[in-house]
Design a protein that fits this description.
Largest sheet: 6 strands, mixed
Structural class: alpha+beta
CATH superfamily of the largest domain: P-loop containing nucleotide triphosphate hydrolases
Number of strands: 20
Strand order of the largest sheet: 12-10-11-18-20-19
Number of helices: 10
Distance between the termini: 64 Å
Shape: elongated
Order of helices and strands: EEEHEEHEHHEHEHEEEHEEEEEHEEEEHH
Helix content: 25-40%
């Protein structure tokens, strides 16, 4: 399952899987049914060898069912009496869909029961193990928790930075300046976030706005055409949230050198800093430096703590009367 922009749970359907995997998985419909709205509850795929033999205890019927070379050979070895019975029981067990790998032709019974029980049958030319690996990644991405957030995301020397703030604060203009310095754009204005299998928050653009930015007074620009293909990223792990704020606000109080604030997104705490926006201030330098500092923190280097330790050492020497 995944979540929509408000964090509510949605479900992945066979139709969604088909649309997402049509090109990378080289899948096609074998039989047209009304089952494209069937829900796929679990991301893992299942090879139903035991179910085809008649053993349904602990059968993972909530998953995509994959009939590979071994399963197809097993069905071919059955008699014309046993095969229809086994396939009927298999399709009647409320499975979401079936995928035939290696381009294998569907048995007549498969097409018949597909229509009878509204279970879509798909086919791919991929080798079974390669299909299972690739399809599992797609399903994990589809079922990962997702949300959308207002903000522009960039990559600065390997650090994924989300720049957010009220309209007119200069998010896109700051990102544009960073692009001119050789950094890369992930998304502009609205960013799609998801949690991957490792628990990291991954940011990506929406397909309709991918590679584009909107600059006030200029309009829409196509980033790769102006700055080259290396200036964009398909997706990036989110490491830091930079919030642009007005000077004198409560948010500006976090200026002690330590990133104490965090932003919880999809249940994951992300370091957050607040940068006050003032006329003439070079936000690009500040955001770039914040990203570099976060990179050092990930490597175990904390400038604020080191300075604090030095000051404490000097103070202790003074109290002891030593120079």
């Amino acid at each position: 399952m995944n979540t929509d922009k408000d964090g509510k749970v949605t479900k992945v359907t066979v139709g969604t899987f088909l649309e997402s995997g049509r090109t990378p998985l080289m899948i096609e419909m074998v039989s047209a049914t009304r089952g494209l709205e069937n829900h796929i509850i679990e991301a893992t795929l299942n090879r139903p060898g035991l179910a085809l033999s008649g053993f349904f205890e602990h059968f993972a019927y909530k998953r995509i069912q994959v009939i590979g070379l071994a399963e197809h050979a097993y069905l071919s070895s059955m008699s014309d009496v046993d095969r229809p019975k086994r396939l009927r029981d298999f399709f009647a067990s409320k499975i979401p869909c079936v995928v035939l790998t290696r381009g294998k032709k569907a048995f007549p019974e498969i097409e018949e029961y597909s229509k009878q029980y509204d279970v879509p049958v798909l086919r791919t030319k991929m080798v079974t193990k390669h299909f299972v690996n690739a399809a599992t990644i797609i399903m994990e991405n589809l079922m990962a928790p997702k949300m959308s957030i207002q903000g522009t995301m960039v990559e600065i020397l390997g650090i994924g930075v989300l720049i957010e703030g009220k309209p007119g604060m200069g998010k896109s203009e700051t990102a544009l300046s960073l692009l001119k310095r050789g950094h890369a754009l992930v998304s502009d204005d609205i960013t799609s976030l998801r949690v991957d299998s490792s628990g990291a928050v991954i940011g990506a653009p929406f397909e309709v706005t991918r590679y584009h930015m909107e600059i006030r007074g200029l309009g829409i620009i196509h980033v790769p055409s102006l700055f080259g293909v290396a200036s964009v990223r398909e997706e990036k792990r989110l490491d830091l949230v930079v919030t642009l704020c007005q000077p004198g606000t409560k948010d500006e109080e976090n200026r002690g050198g330590e990133i104490k604030a965090t932003r919880t997104l999809l249940g994951v705490s992300i370091p957050q800093i607040f940068i006050p926006v003032a006329p003439g201030r070079d936000l690009t330098n500040v955001v770039e430096t914040a990203a570099l500092d976060q990179r050092l923190r990930k490597l175990g280097h904390d400038a604020a703590k080191e300075l604090d330790q030095k000051l404490m050492t000097l103070m202790n020497k003074g109290l002891d009367g030593s120079e």
